[in-house]
């Protein structure tokens, strides 16, 4: 009797093996073999995320060129990175659009698997989430009206400054230790709302990440971005503290994208080269 059970199990295992081989030999899978093989070898990737087969990325899709809407789709640098990482892990990327300051709490509670939102690695956030390796350099820029007379960071003293709520720009301008000297800090849900307020003269300047600042200026009349950056920052992907396996898997995928030029190609597609 024992023997019989064993042989049934063996036949079962063999059948699984055969099915597995047949699947990976299918022509449409051929291109993925190289990238999916290492993760598959490490074990069960279904346990990496909250929902089997899906990588849910939380973002705020008002941050061109990193994430923005085109019709009903979220596109941009981070959208392409999400798709590529998901593919390498044998998952499908699914976006969850929300306010920027809701992203980290959503990662912590498991509403989303990762936060991918042009998000800067900073000390305070590291208390709540882990960050992957970084994938791009950034900094805070200043947007003003063409005729404003504000020519440098020093001229922000005594001015009303608009920021996106909960961002590193908000942090920098709000922290008196940095000596910006704002008369007031007005917090908006996103960059376009802040810029609109600048256009209608309710505020004197907007402080926001450099590449989004370029796009905001491009998409409006009469605004300029100053050359000077206020900070040096690095973007990375936020992962829940208790999901080291996902953190490691994403770092592996990111490294592969760095090594094979894929990441640079995505950045080149969206960022203007100066
Ligand atoms: N890089 C900034 C931050 O992490 C802004 C990100 C964003 O607005 N999407 O706070």
How would you describe this structure to a colleague?
The chain has 274 residues and is α/β, with parallel strands linked by helices. 39% of the residues lie in helices and 22% in strands. It has 10 helices and 15 strands. The strands form 4 sheets. It has a 5-stranded mixed β-sheet, with helices on both faces. A 5-stranded mixed β-sheet has the order 11-10-12-9-13, with helices on both faces. A 3-stranded antiparallel β-sheet has the order 2-3-4. The structure holds glutamine.
Task: Jot down its keywords.
274 residues; alpha/beta; D-Maltodextrin-Binding Protein, domain 2; 5-stranded mixed sheet; 15 strands; 22% strand; elongated; disordered N terminus; binds glutamine
* Mean model confidence by pLDDT: 88
Kindly estimate the percentage of residues that lie in beta strands according to DSSP. Answer: 15-25%
User: Number of DSSP helices?
Assistant: 10
Sheet with the most strands: spatial strand order: 5-1-6-15-7
Helical proportion? 25-40%
**H-E order:** HHEEEEHEHEHEEEEHEHEHEEEHH
Rg result: 23 Å
CATH class label of the largest domain: Alpha Beta
Number of domains: 2
CATH superfamily of the largest domain: Periplasmic binding protein-like II
| CATH architect. name of the largest domain | 3-Layer(aba) Sandwich
Rounded to the nearest angstrom, the distance between the terminal CA atoms is: 75 Å
**Sheet with the most strands?**
5 strands, mixed
* Shape category: elongated
Do you know the CATH topology of the largest domain? D-Maltodextrin-Binding Protein, domain 2
Residue runs with pLDDT of under 50 for 5 or more positions: 1-42
In total, how many beta strands?
A: 15
User: Which ligands appear in the coordinates?
Assistant: glutamine
User: Structural class of the helices, strands and pairings?
Assistant: alpha/beta
């Amino acid at each position: 009797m024992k023997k019989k059970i064993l042989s049934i199990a063996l036949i079962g295992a063999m059948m699984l093996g055969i099915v597995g081989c047949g699947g990976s030999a299918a022509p449409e899978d051929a291109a993925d073999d190289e990238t999916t093989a290492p993760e598959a070898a490490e074990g069960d990737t279904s346990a990496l995320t909250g929902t089997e087969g899906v990588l849910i990325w939380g973002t705020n899709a008002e941050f061109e060129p990193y994430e923005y809407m085109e019709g009903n789709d979220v596109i941009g640098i981070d959208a392409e990175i999400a798709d590529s990482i998901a593919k390498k892990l044998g998952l499908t990327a699914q976006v969850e659009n929300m306010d920027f300051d809701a992203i980290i709490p959503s990662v912590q509670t498991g509403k989303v698997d990762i936060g991918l939102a042009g998000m800067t690695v900073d000390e305070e956030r590291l208390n709540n989430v882990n960050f992957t390796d970084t994938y791009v350099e950034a900094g805070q820029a200043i947007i003003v009206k063409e005729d404003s007379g504000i020519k440098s960071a020093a001229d922000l003293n005594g001015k009303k400054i608009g920021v996106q709520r909960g961002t590193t720009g908000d942090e920098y301008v709000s922290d008196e230790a940095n000596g910006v000297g704002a008369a007031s800090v007005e917090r908006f849900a996103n960059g376009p709302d802040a810029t609109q307020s600048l256009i209608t003269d309710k505020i004197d300047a907007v402080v926001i990440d450099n590449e989004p600042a370029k796009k905001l200026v491009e998409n409006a009349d009469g605004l300029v971005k100053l050359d000077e950056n206020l900070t040096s920052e690095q973007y990375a992907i936020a992962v829940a503290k208790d999901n080291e396996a996902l953190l490691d898997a994403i770092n592996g995928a990111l490294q592969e994208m760095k090594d094979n030029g894929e990441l640079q190609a995505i950045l080149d597609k969206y960022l203007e080269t100066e």
